[in-house]
Amino acid sequence: MQIQTPSFIFCKLRQLFSDNVFTFSFLLITTLYLSADWFMDRYFMPKNISFVVGIILWGGICIGNWKRKIRLSVDFLFLSFTVFMGYVFVCSLFTSQYIHSVYIVSGWILFVLMRNRKNPTETFNSILAVVGVLSALYGLLQYVGCIEIQSYFPVIGSFDNPAGFAASIVLCYPFLLCHSSNGKRRTFKVMACLLLIIVVILSGSRTGVLTLCVVTLLFYALRYRKLIHKRRIFLISGGALFLISLFIGLIYLKPASASGRVLIWKVSAGLCKEHIIQGNGLGSFKADYMPEQAKYLSSSHADESDRILAGNTNYPFNEYLLLLIEQGLIGIALFLLSLIAVFRSNVAFDTPAILTLVSIAIFSCFSYPFKYTFVWFMIIYCFASLNQREVALRTIRFNKPFLLIILFILCFFLIKNIIFERTWKRISLVAEKNNGLLDNELSVFTKLYDEWNGNPYFLYNYASELKNVELYKQSVNIFLHCESYINTYDLQMQLADNYYQMECWEEAERRYKLAQCMCPSRFLPLQGLLRVYVKSDNCILAERIALEIINKRIKIPSYTVTIIQEEARNYLRKKNI
Question: Do the record's keywords include tRNA processing (predicted)?
């Protein structure tokens, strides 16, 4: 009997781990991506999950290729994707939020690693199918009340709202659907597909329901195209009629929501005019949209229904429109170049990768899927799964030292960002518990501001805390800084309240009016204007605003609205007396 030496056993174990490390890494990063919003809600770590993924992948590749070099095949798909990501990366360099550049580089690295490794694609697809089923079960348990959630919505999964949850289920659905058409236990797999469909319906995501129907019809039409060839005209017409009827039905299911999105698209179209070629810049939508909405609603083009529907908006509910606004026609052209590379790929259209890309394309028309990290991961994975028909133009090799350098850089940014977010979270909880900032917490906030990581919501939180402890001048300065990144109704109201406390009546009036133009159905800006005019002894305008408050149409009855109207009536009674 041959005795195995320790070195031989070690080599075998290392080889086994090397062969499976990428599979384990894929399983781990899939779980992390799906729970990204769960982490963000509890640990204030927005997008840090990208760094975690980068480190896991780079570490796995370093171990799996300890004595080998990585080959990078340059073809049309690689070039088109790299040029697009490179253009977005260059645009990010011209913003103060440097952290976006790191996210973009992490995404490109993920694409390179997943594309140029001999990945067990079938294993990866099975993992995604199982992840979809587990996510659906988690959402179902939320719906029936077995898992309690702090949300108005009945089903949100591990995300902050049903949109992200429905998007994750829809993107996993094609992998399960393809498994259900072949192999053993087909009945069980079909039942799992039905589970995903039912959970998406329970989530209330109309875009998710529409996407599932389109993907299902497309899959069976392509998979059984030979059988339906003789009746293709009848079946295609029937399928198109069904989808059109479903689309119209989903619109009338929530007509106010549909009309609100049309309003957002009309206002967003005005943002494209000034810099149509190169766009307004990465992240510019949140800073530019609400002032543009205020301008539109104040014009003669808007009617009363538009003013009632208008609300606080951070996303255009159309990723293509967002790309045009922020990246211009150049970004659209480079995006279309990537689509051409997809169609030139040597992959059948009924495969999970193509169907998932179709799902993302449909979801992007009516929602904001790219807000969620899991969607970025899925689109990169699907792009990396496509094989090109032509021979690679060139092959580039990377060695171990290069991998380790990138790994250390990612670790540096990861640790730096996590420390910042965790410290912010801790200080915010202490301030909330003490109903305000103490001297110690204020000094920590000031230090964090000096080391700001580019997250504009930190600026908003810091300025709000300064306002709560009556440091109005400092609060105004921070809010003005935040205004260049996220200019919303809430921010304008905070600024107006600060100016009111500082007795800067003209500036307070201007901010209250801007907030009122942004969301004309709100009562709080009118209450602020009434108080400004009363304090500044402008009786004529105060009476006019009081009458407007009393006669204003109420969108949603609430206790706050009742109090504001009672305040206006009391003012008019005192004036008459």
Answer: no
